[in-house]
Amino acid sequence: MLIPDFLLYALLSALAIAITAGPLGAFVVWQRLAYFGDTLSHGALLGVAFGLFAGINITLAIVICCLLMATALLILMRNPNQGHDAMLGLLSHTALAAGLVSISLSGTSVDIFAYLFGDLLTTTAQDAWLILGISLGIIILLVIFWQPMLLCVIDQNLAKAEGIPTTLMKALLLFCIAIMVAFAMRIVGVLLITALLIIPASSSRLLSRTPEMMAFLAAIIGCIAVLGGMASSYWYDTPAGPSIVLFSSALFLLAFSAKKIIDYTSKRR
Amino acid sequence: MQNTRVNAHAMPAKQDGTILTLQEVTLRYDNVKVLDNINFSLNAGQILTIIGPNGAGKSSLIKTAIGLISPQAGKVIKKPGLRIGYMPQKISINAQLPLTTRRFLSLNSRKADFSDAVKRLDITCLLDTPIQGLSGGEMQRVLLARALMKQPELLVLDEPAQGVDVVGQAELYHLLGELRDELHCGVLLVSHDLHIVMAQTDHVLCLNKHICCHGEPESVSQHPEYLHLFDPKAADDIAVYTHDHDHSHDMHGDIVKGSKQSCSHP
Predict the structure, then answer these.
(1) B28: closest CA among B62, B70, B58, B59?
(2) Which of A55, A164, B31, B225 is 20 to 30 A off residue A5, Cα-Cα?
(3) B244 CA to chain A: closest CA distance, Å?
(4) Domain boundary at B150, B173, B196, which?
């Protein structure tokens, strides 16, 4: 059976994003950054509006907006003692609302739903190559800085005392997430990007004994969800993004049950 | 001993040379002064204990000393390339991170040879335990092991005796004395208990935002500032319960083999 070109590009991009989302999602879970993921993705929508108004390439505008948002979050995170969830909520929802309002004001006939829930099947060859390149870059960065980043997750002070540039590591992580979010927007849409980060990582947590295994399994689980979601989208004409997320939720349930059964049987032995 | 402020020259400079000096360090959090004009220096092979009541700024002082916090005024001078082993007061690790003690110890170190440190702190049996499952005292020993693996020239410990019983504390301080002799490292530690720290320490610094008094352990315990800080009335209310066990415990609280034991369990 031959795969139509558009489906091939869509599949490649979605798999690349799922693989990148594996280790990044693990960090999001470890550092409790789920809300940050939401804020970044809402920033992506603002990027769409910005691109439409400024008349520049939309993808570029999204990337710029996500990076700016990540910088704002980084500044906000500098004082860990201050309760900043309210500030985050303000930033996040203002970005979402401003994005929606300005897109509708721009007058162009833009399909907002495509941005909110993803429009995977319109991926072009050029998009696919770009996403593959970006994903590869992020993975390489994560491999190089894996150990120091992990030590930062364990304890900031300990890492800093051992000479790790903790602020740089945090910035690197947030910028990687920001770029991944900017490109994942096309796959699952603004509202579901965080799901792509945290659901596979949470599933793999149940089955992993080392941080590396958790990151790796999260990538695998993400890929299975992509394949399942896209198959369902192809044959039953369901929206691709939400189908992928639903599949990863189903995999979480599966992993959860498997874990319970394993624990139960090992206890009885 | 009568000055309430210490200057850098007040401490006897040994031949070993100074590895850490704080000059007129002042630290504020949101305009609240946490440290006020702190001066001291530490030599290689010297044990310096910082004591003081809760909220005296003890943790802030050592965080400033090793560069985790930058002071608003004053200078922190470290020997160039100083290797620091830092043992934080406590760390809390997210339960979502699957990590064994072994992996924690080998993380981000090139050689990852922790066998000596592990043997020394008697934590071999904890190596395959998830790090989140360790008790407070176990975690302290694991953190100390990690600090030791770096062959530190300066060992910094924030309340190392926390969560360890009296016998365990004595053992811990004995170990610190040994390490100082072996590695010839400077040791900077925080304690809120003067009485137990005393034996191994060379110099005591009594802190309550500023340095109240400092000196040899015996002289500090007589110093009026110290007595004022650790309210003598409170001291009257706490009697030391002296009693002899016919067996001894190690740092785990387990009974040491070979020690006499009268209370045998059937």
Answers:
(1) B70
(2) A55
(3) 39
(4) B150
